[in-house]
# Entry
Amino acid sequence: MSKEKLIVTRKDKQIYLADDKIIKVFDYEYNTAMVLNEALNHARIEETEVNVPSLLEVSKREGKWAITLSYVKGKTLAQLMEEHPEEIDKYLNKFVEIQLWIHKQVSPLLTKQKDKMSRKIDMTDLDAATKYELHTRLEALPRHKKVCHGDFNPSNVIIDNDGTPFVIDWSHATQGNASMDVARTYLLFYLEGKEALAEQYLDLFCTKTNTDKRYVQKCIPIVAATQLVKGNKEERDFLLKWINVVDYE
# Structure
């Protein structure tokens, strides 16, 4: 990896820039199936109308799995929001419009959202009664087939030098209910300490889609429970507060 430039280091992966390519290198212990699933999800999204970097290669580099994508020159919406806080409304509006465009897509071979959420609820250490209530709430949601990113936040949207948006990091993509996807984004804003932006985002989505805010709020305990599976101790107490399934009745 000596010829590539390290640009991002995360908990379980490193991202390198090499000429016109982005190389995401996973740690040795990273689950092989998860790497291949991320690449497969990306390939399936390439078949929709959403702009994504081209998937170039899945390989092993020095014994580590790696995914190579084309490099999109530009800035993330997160960077633009930080650099131009006076234009936050414009960027948030663009962010929601991109998410709505994603939700208009279909990809029949993506994992079903309800199946994934149900498995993750079972993986938590929550008590049986809480799991039952979460499963009941999940099953009560309408069965949609919309493409859902699963980790949609401003850091995963790149605006290229021509102003075209590209969406990255499709490892959590599913087909399912858009409001569940929105609840995830809302919670991600909160986890970053951006409560006001979270509320503004939710209001904007509900206005644009004529969605009752309470409908999205019913998804939040489910999303919070699935977030627990990541095992982040710093988030645990915060997430448990959101898992009170009677909050929005």
User: Anything to note?
Assistant: The first helix runs from residue 32 to 46. The chain has ten helices and ten strands. The mean pLDDT is 94.
